[in-house]
Amino acid sequence: MSDNERRATVERYSSGERTNHWLIALGFVLAALSGLALFHPALFWLSNLFGGGPWTRILHPFVGLFMLIVFVPLAASVWGDNRMQAADWQWLRQLQDVVHNREERLPEVGRYNADRSSCSSPSPPACSGCCCPASSSGAPISRSISQSA
Q1: CA 26 to CA 74: how far, in whole Å?
Q2: pTM score, two decimals?
Q3: Cα separation of 67 and 82, whole Å?
Q4: Percent of the chain with pLDDT over 90
Q5: CB atoms near residue 130 (< 10 Å)
Q6: Which of 97, 58, 80, 74 has the alpha carbon at shortest distance from 24?
Q7: CA distance linking residue 120 with residue 75, whole number of Å
Q8: Which of 132, 142, 131 is nearest to 100 (CA)?
């Protein structure tokens, strides 16, 4: 890969962010399993994964606390990249081009496109205006690609 190609590439996630993501995912699985063990007697057998009922009850809140401690620095590090910018609003106005996979007509976006930026935007109208339709746009996109292939 040449230097020009490297400069044109946008790194989506660093290795630290990926590691952070997987730590949160692991914590989620552990919290879900321990929570299910505590939730219903039919699922109490899951507590054996944590050393029995008392250990499950002790560890469950600490897993949640671990997830919070790991998530907050990640959220803080990507906060600025998730703010809506002029190119994001243009991307939303051209949502029909997104659905029909006409990427050459779309504006250049930074780290995330408007679909990702608006879901964490502090502006509620932006989120309610595009998260649902833009997130579900994967189905029409994949359908149009498979029909043309």
Answers
A1: 15
A2: 0.59
A3: 21
A4: 37
A5: 23
A6: 74
A7: 10
A8: 142
Helix (H, G, I), strand (E, B) or coil at 128: helix
CA–CA dist 64, 98 (Å, integer)? 37
Average pLDDT over residues 122-148: 45
Place of tokens 């002790």: 58
Which pLDDT does position 122 carry in this prediction?
46
Amino acid at 46: L
Q: What is the pLDDT of residues 35-79, one digit of tens each?
A: 999 999 999 999 999 999 999 999 999 999 999 999 999 888 888
- CA nearest 21: which of 80, 82, 81, 67? 67
Cβ pair 120, 81 in contact under 8 A: no
Instruction: Show me where the domains of the chain are located.
Output: 3-78, 83-148
Q: Which three-class secondary structure state does DSSP give residue 123? A: coil
